[in-house]
Specification:
517 residues, alpha+beta, nine-stranded mixed β-sheet, five-stranded mixed β-sheet, 43% helix, globular, disordered N terminus
């Protein structure tokens, strides 16, 4: 019991250290801070194509941190017992190692072995070589191994903006203001102003539920950027990053507000094309779009993230913050009237209680927790978001409920950890095999739990998932483009922008944790 109380105290310390600037006035202007060099081409036509031949030696093509664990995988039978790591520039052998632990990969029907070269810490560009199956792709060993990817992924949200010219010249920016025509509510002649927001999918749709998921993830990341003492340059960089995050969120929130019906408080599901789009350039799309009817799901998600945003944004613009909170409360009233007491309503109630301290939301969330069985989670992560909101609440909380929630988080984390250990690629699988989207979702869950429980084991597991996505996979392909876009990862799998926000949170958690190790 003492350990549970200690964890609960750590939650509050970790999640609220530096959540606001000492002098918010210095950061009231949220400037556009996007590097024009990445605005080179559209990001919606990035199909994932399996290579015609697959490498025999698999590595993280993005690279490895100087002090992190470094593992390469070797495909096939009858392998040499040895491997070497070669400096690409000098062609000198930098490390010699043993190939070990051959295992049969049931999913792909082949043998997989591994080689560990953690002891190699000298920065540089290398490749791995072994007899029989040859060389790996080149990779780097460096200090800031995830910095560029983090920046690229964050920039990608800006590039998905709708209805506005992006910040670049015509020569380098082929995405001008798009989708400016009026939209009608599905099945009616009612015109709704729907400009703005992010395109959340490859058909330029703008989905409220997915947009809300992105907002919640980016706001969590924003809150977790701790204001530790550092150099003036480090402080300025953190301020720039927080501004960039919040600026993107504010752009989407303004669009979300346009999706709320003022009279009822209900929220439309989003904006969708009447037919599949036939262009990859948003500004040349002349298709007809419609606004999807109000849904309880969209309204509940809206209520939760608008409450979260209003709480964080109040130090920048109190008037706009109050508008958002009022919209959140109106949406919650709609959900109470037309929806069921499920994990989405619980999530919204938890965020509203955290933002307002109103006991009616506390009563509602306790009512929900009394109805579910321990460990029950009917929808990916939404109960988890509610749990986190309650555990990090500065309002009066029920300690017994907090203990219950902590037990559930620990059980979830241990289940994910055990699952990842069973696969030869060290990632999560299901009956259909390995899916990049599911890998990212599970890693996001573990990253949130790791922020509370803090386990070296969890850090290693999260990094293994990134190694898979960045090249240590069956095809040896880096699934993240130079513009921070997650490629299609399998036949029939659609591009989903919300995975980008999960990726941002994971990268931030790993970078922060490695700095603490």
């Amino acid at each position: 019991m003492f350990r549970k109380r200690l964890w609960l105290c750590l939650v509050t310390v970790l999640l609220f250290t530096g959540c606001g600037y000492e002098n918010p006035e210095d950061y009231k202007t949220l400037e556009e801070t996007v590097d024009e060099s990445f605005l080179q081409e559209a990001v919606y036509d990035e199909p994932y194509e399996k290579p015609s031949s697959r490498p025999g030696v698999l590595v993280d093509r993005n690279g490895y941190g100087t002090e992190s664990e470094k593992v390469a995988l070797f495909r096939g039978e009858g392998l040499s017992q040895d491997f070497t790591v070669v400096n690409q520039e000098t062609k000198q052998v930098a490390y010699r190692g043993k190939i070990q632990k051959t295992a049969y990969n049931e999913i792909d029907k082949e043998y997989i072995s591994k080689g560990v070269f953690t002891e190699l810490t000298e920065p540089g560009t290398y490749y791995i070589e072994t007899a029989v199956i040859g060389q790996s792709y080149p990779f780097e060993i460096k200090e800031d191994v995830y910095g560029q990817i983090y920046s690229d992924v964050l920039d990608s949200f800006y590039y998905h903006r709708c209805g506005t010219d992006l910040n670049g010249t015509v020569d380098v920016n082929n995405h001008r203001a798009c989708h400016l025509k009026a939209t009608k509510l599905q099945g009616t002649d009612t015109v709704i102003q729907s400009q703005g927001g992010w395109h959340t999918g490859s058909n330029f749709e703008k989905d409220v539920v997915e947009g809300a998921k992105i907002v919640s993830d980016l706001l969590l990341t924003y809150e977790y950027i701790e204001e530790k003492e550092g150099t003036e340059q480090e402080t300025e960089e953190k301020g720039r990053l927080r501004n960039k995050l919040l600026n993107e969120v504010a752009f989407e929130v303004k669009w979300l507000l346009s999706m709320q019906e003022e009279e009822s408080g209900g929220v439309y599901g989003g904006v969708y094309p009447e037919k599949e789009t036939i262009t990859t350039a948003p500004e040349t799309d002349e298709g007809t779009y419609y606004v999807k009817e109000i849904s309880v799901e969209a309204t509940a998600e809206f209520s939760a993230v608008l409450a979260q945003f209003s709480r964080i944004y109040s130090i920048y613009d109190k008037e706009f913050s109050e508008i958002c909170l009022k919209a959140s409360e109106g949406a919650y009233s709609y959900v109470e009237k037309y929806g069921e007491l499920d994990d989405l309503q619980y999530y919204a109630a938890a965020e509203l209680y955290k933002s307002t301290g109103n006991e009616k939301y506390h009563i509602k969330l306790k009512q929900y927790l009394g109805l579910i069985q321990p460990g029950e989670n009917s929808r990916f992560s939404r109960k988890l978001y509610g749990d986190i909101a309650y555990l990090t609440c500065k309002q009066k909380v029920d300690v017994g409920i907090c203990d219950q929630l902590m037990d559930g988080l620990m059980e979830k984390a241990e289940g994910l950890a055990e699952s990842a250990k069973k696969d030869v690629y060290m990632v999560w699988t299901d009956q259909s095999g390995r899916c990049a989207g599911q890998i990212l979702e599970n890693t996001f869950v573990l990253a949130i739990i790791d922020r509370i429980i803090t386990s070296h084991e969890y850090l290693g597991i999260m990094e293994n998932q990134l190694h898979y996505l960045l090249g240590r996979n069956e095809d040896g392909v880096g699934m993240v483009t130079g513009k921070g876009i997650l490629n299609h990862t399998d036949e029939g799998e659609e591009y989903q922008l919300y995975l980008q926000s999960s990726f941002i949170f994971i990268l931030h958690e790993i970078v922060e944790r490695e700095a603490e190790e």
